[in-house]
Amino acid sequence: MTTNSTALFYQKASQCLCPPGNGVFTVNTAKERKQNLHQALYGQITDIESVWLNSLKQLEHSSSAVVLGIASDCGGGILRGANWGPLFVRSTLLEQYPDLKTFDLGDIRVIPHLLADKYLNNETITNCRRALYQDESSPYAVSPLTITEDILHDFYATYPNKGIFGIGGDHSISYPLTKAYLQAKKKQGKRAAIIHFDAHTDLLVERLGIDLCFGSWCTHILDDLHENHHLIQVGIRSSGKPKSHWEDTFGVKQHWAHEVKENGVQSVIDNIHRQLADENIDELYVSFDIDALDDSFAAATGTPEPDGLSPDEALAILKSLADKYPITGADMMEIAPFTDSTGQGASAAESTLKVGADISAFLLKEMAKN
């Protein structure tokens, strides 16, 4: 790594990111929670932009577990509200796990009605560059998925021994997170697998004409894996097609939620280890959609589903994998603190945030070991 590459990354980050918790562009909403987050992270609630910018200069010597918030739910489409996930998950982590060794990179700057730059015409991109960067000729992207992928390519090139823990946001965000990760690992000569926890396969080619969204992101990272079966999905149960369709069509491996219930979690763990045994996998990325868990544990999400995993089952699988493979990238997606379609009321957000923080803390601790 050169001083020049570090300076170039800092320049891009200072433009394309913002302080942690500020990714949702509002004036007064959740102001107190944002201030509490800033107080916990920086010891003050004023002049946060300057404090955060100065903190970026410490990234090189920081923890290998680097947090990035992407407060976007434009790639979802059922119940919205996951854009508040990065702020609320961070706050819960700081409250419940104050000793975590992480570095907070901040949030992607999000224009909330944009998804990816490829869907925009030149006039819109120009206007959005003027709004985000006060420069219509800026070279930087303007949509959350495109900004995320762009900045992470530079992140991994500059800090190859660090990993990103992304907090969403809807699951479309895992497209740039995993794409940049997988491409970086290939350049490093490493073989990586994706362990994907979800109630849904996310293997559509497109949804209502949009190819990058919460229901299709997995399909569009398959070419970045060494083999399609290096995508292993756990907790699937809401699908219009049987398991055989997805495995035969896309070559992925799946472990449906009913298999965990019927055969026991250890049986599923053993099957996953058998699938990875002869694949020469060096590292793992874990993408965790909170709706992989049963809706009695995780109701504050856009698509809560019954008959899912328990937090203990999910953690048992993760702990077993972490015993054998380094987890060097991860994300926590689809926590929508203000959303509940199950009738649990305020307790829905509290319980969802708790289990989300528990799983996130485990993943961050593993990433910090590397």
TrEMBL record:
Coiled coil: none annotated. Belongs to the arginase family. Keywords: Hydrolase, Metal-binding. This is Agmatinase.
